[in-house]
Request: fold
Amino acid sequence: DTGVSQDPRHKITKRGQNVTFRCDPISEHNRLYWYRQTLGQGPEFLTYFQNEAQLEKSRLLSDRFSAERPKGSFSTLEIQRTEQGDSAMYLCASSWVAGLPDTQYFGPGTRLTVL
Amino acid sequence: RKEVEQDPGPFNVPEGATVAFNCTYSNSASQSFFWYRQDCRKEPKLLMSVYSSGNEDGRFTAQLNRASQYISLLIRDSKLSDSATYLCVVIYTGTASKLTFGTGTRLQVTL
Reply:
């Protein structure tokens, strides 16, 4: 399967714990995005990378959130000291930028439940 | 006010019906427009881009009215498999292809 993959698919954790999610983009895609989706809402942008550089972060991304893409391939999203409000689906998308608005391909998401 | 607004529905229509969804966006500095489809508990998938001249893909027709900041999606001859949430998506100029989603409109096609 050459699509975007995310791991784990589901994560249940207790409030205050740290969690880390991984995203593997489509091979050769130079842009990688993270979005968060809560029930009944559309996805909301969190951050994006062009190659290994993190170029933008949403105000939704508090200090407890950190994302990396160390070699310009896979990315990780870490949430420290989780809160119940962090419960959501975390979606990763990747694209190949060639000057025009790029088509983003989404992974299946990681569903986080904070108890 | 949300940047991209949609009627959340649900729209319940019989098979074979024609259904239309509307979407309005607040930022006039908008560059690109899309409709995504999202099945229950799945990731969003691109349905179609929306162009000023209007565009059609089989049973699906998308329209854009920049003056009114309004986007529409028309589905003709609805199928059971069209049941999903349809997300209106905007990219604002200078935002590096960051997608701004509406809340989605849920469609349920019934026998």
User: Anything to note?
Assistant: The radius of gyration of chain A is 13 Å. Residues 46 and 60 of chain A are 6 Å apart (CA to CA). The first strand of chain A starts at residue 5 and ends at 7.
